Amino acid sequence: QLHLQESGPGLVKPSETLSLTCTVSGGSINSNDYYWGWIRQPPGRRLEWIGNIFYSGTSTYYNPSLKGRVTMSADTSKNQFSLKLTSVTAADTAVYYCARRSTGSSSDYWGQGTLVTVSS
Amino acid sequence: DIQMTQSPSSLSASVGDRVTITCRASQDIRNDLGWYQQKPGKAPKRLIYAASTLQSGVPSRFSGSGSGTEFTLTINSLQPEDFADYYCLQHNTYPHTFGQGTKVET
User: Fold this and answer.
1) CA-based nearest distance B101→chain A, Å
2) Tens-place pLDDT, residues A64-103
3) Are residues B106 and B12 in contact, defined by beta-carbon separation less than 8 angstroms?
4) Fewest CB within a 10 Å sphere: which of B16, B26, B32, B88?
5) Do the beta carbons of residue A45 and residue A113 sit within 8 Å?
6) H-type helices in chain B, by residue range?
7) Which residues of B touch A96 (CB under 8 A)?
């Protein structure tokens, strides 16, 4: 059974960089069949798709609403992929989820989510 | 971006009711749509993919229909464990976008 687990600081100061890692177990990220992505949900608001990455890093897509502040990477040796979001503000406070999706489909496996609060 | 307009934003229902939730896309997304259920403090769980295909392990009282710009999630004979939030997600075009959600409550 595939399992995804987010990890990273729960509190980030304004203007700093949010960094999260998703560790995948029960399967390999090294597959041509899947994209690995991030989705967030601010408190009381709808889900927002952040972006996704192919295991080789050759194909990434980021939501333009994040104005170039996002970078994703994948480490096949650790079976992990990561998210960096720079210059954070309070508006970036959210539960962040990592997820897997098959090419041409929607996300099927999700991590449990991790709350990141932006505050001084 | 493709806008996903989901309705209603909330609805009140009872056990045994039939519930219908609608998502409209601002442009044709073929059948590139999934439906998710989310309970408080939990990750979303996919119920339907490709607009009408039931995810393995999901009860058959859930069904999805539609293509193009209009989609429907139906829950037949609502059960106590079905009170939750529901979201649609289009993955036809980047950036993928979610509907605003529907809260199904008693």
Assistant:
1) 6
2) 999 899 999 999 999 999 999 999 999 999 999 999 999 8
3) yes
4) B16
5) no
6) none
7) none
Placement of tokens 């996300």 in the chain: A107
- Judging contacts by C-beta atoms under 8 Å, the chain A residues touching residue B1 are 65
Look up residue A47 and give its two tokens.
């889900």
CB B47 within 8 A of CB B95: no
| Rounded Cα–Cα distance for residues B68 and B71 (Å) | 8
pLDDT tens figures, B55-104: 999 999 999 999 999 999 999 999 999 999 999 999 999 999 999 999 99
DSSP string, A6-28: EES-SEE-TTS-EEEEEEEESS-
Q: Which residue in A4, A6, A55, A52 sits closest to A29, CA to CA?
A: A55
* Both tokens assigned to A72: 């994703």
